Amino acid sequence: xxxxxxxxxxxxxxxxxxxxxxxxxxxxxxxxxxxxxxxxxxxxxxxxxxxxxxxxxxxxxxxxxx
Length: 66
What we know:
Elements: E1 6-12, E2 17-22, E3 27-30, H1 35-43, H2 47-55, E4 61-64
């Protein structure tokens, strides 16, 4: 999953939570994300572009503390 912005993504299908770990080390949880969106995100060529266009302003998010 090469990306200059996103280090790793993880999805909790039971809760529909999408976790995005950024290269900076910050971790954010996006709530109530449909599995189809997660799968499309995972398959996208540009993770940063997909995140900005499809996820960021459409789903509630919170920073996950270390």
